Amino acid sequence: MSSAPVITSAGLLNHWQAHRRLTRRVIEAFPADQLNSFSLGGMRSFGAQVLEMLSMPIPTMVGITTGKWEVSFDRGTQPKAELLARWDAQTREIDAIWPKVRPEAWQETMDAFGYFQGPAIDILLYVIDNEVHHRAQGYVYLRALGVEPPPFHVRD
């Protein structure tokens, strides 16, 4: 059996950034006047979910590269233009931090935020899974609002 990695570090970054590009298109598609107010079934607004998605990547990357796990959550609301600007800035920041991850760090057990203990790769995959989960809620909201969401399979 081969011990070659299933995915390279560059491949993982590309996969994550492809998810981020799609999530950005979902944010763009959302009606600005509904972003922070529309909800279904007691779920939070999509704007609140976007704030959560914005709260996780950089603190996770900093934690993986430095061992310092600090996070703060924005609980307020922000207009769509501000969320998109933050999303874009964060995307560039992820690209800047990524090369600082030591290759062996992905398999090291870390204690993320005093809450999640496991290999760094599992912690990052949780961040990606969380984004996909909330993006899917955004898709449901868009359909309920009569807005056609971006094609799921287009990640460029």
The amount of beta strand, in percent, is 5-15%
Number of structurally distinct domains: 1
Principal-axes shape call: globular
Largest sheet properties: 2 strands, antiparallel
Tell me the total number of β-strands: 2
Q: What's the level 1 CATH class?
A: Mainly Alpha
SS element count, helices: 5
Examine the secondary-structure arrangement and name the CATH architecture.
Answer: Up-down Bundle
Quote the CATH topology.
Answer: Four Helix Bundle (Hemerythrin (Met), subunit A)
Order of helices and strands: HHHHEEH
Kindly report how far apart the N and C termini lie. Answer: 33 Å
Low-pLDDT residue intervals, each spanning 5 or more residues:
none
Give the helix/strand class.
mainly alpha
For CATH, the homologous superfamily is named as: dinb family like domain
Report the radius of gyration as a whole number of Å. 16 Å
Q: Strand sequence of the main sheet, in spatial order? A: 1-2
Q: What is the typical, i.e. mean, pLDDT?
A: 95
Q: Percentage of helical residues?
A: 40-55%
Account of the 3D structure:
By secondary structure, the chain is mainly alpha-helical. The protein has five helices and two strands. A two-stranded antiparallel sheet has the order 1-2. Strand 1 and strand 2 form a beta hairpin. The radius of gyration is 16 Å and the shape is globular.
